[in-house]
Write a structure and sequence with these properties.
By secondary structure, the protein is an alpha+beta fold. The chain is built from 3 helices and 10 strands; from the N terminus they run αβββββααβββββ.
Amino acid sequence: MKKFLRWCVAAIIILVVVILITMIHRKHAAALALANRVVPVSVITPELKTLSKSVSVLGSVFAKQDTYITPKNDGYIKMLLFKEGQHVNQGDPVILLDNTKARSQLLADQTTLTIDKNQFTTDKNLLKKGLISADDLASDKSKFAAQQAVVVSDQKSLQEATLRAPFSGYLGAKTVSKGDAVKAAQQLVQIVDRDHLYVQYALPAKQASF
């Protein structure tokens, strides 16, 4: 009985050894076949190319110039000289304020200026004849110069009654009508330079070199 068991154990050991040898042989044969297998490949000549870089972002568009036309003095709208959406050039008249008072004031001050000028001219001749003093002439000269400044101020006020485009652009919607009373610095109509626009956007730091 013991002899039979020994034969059985020996047979099992031999069988295991045979199986292991067979497995090793198959793996070796498979590896050898893989090493000897011919794999077709394609060969091309390398070319140097420049790859374009691009990135998509969202931005905000705004005009180079964008402001409101405003009066420098209080007044009444006499005439609107534009249509909504109209393009105007720099210096074009847009709104005309009532200038009746300014024109009347200018005419009155110009009359006074003429009188002061004539008086100053007459006094120069009188001084040469010794009929007036130098102080009298100096006083008339000062009065004449002051009136000149008044007339210049009147002319400026009359010019300011015509509101002009500060730059070339497109006018927006009307916010006032003929006859409306307006205040100094009141925003009457927007003007935008749509021909020169900027785009504002943000990029990640790693793409800032784009």
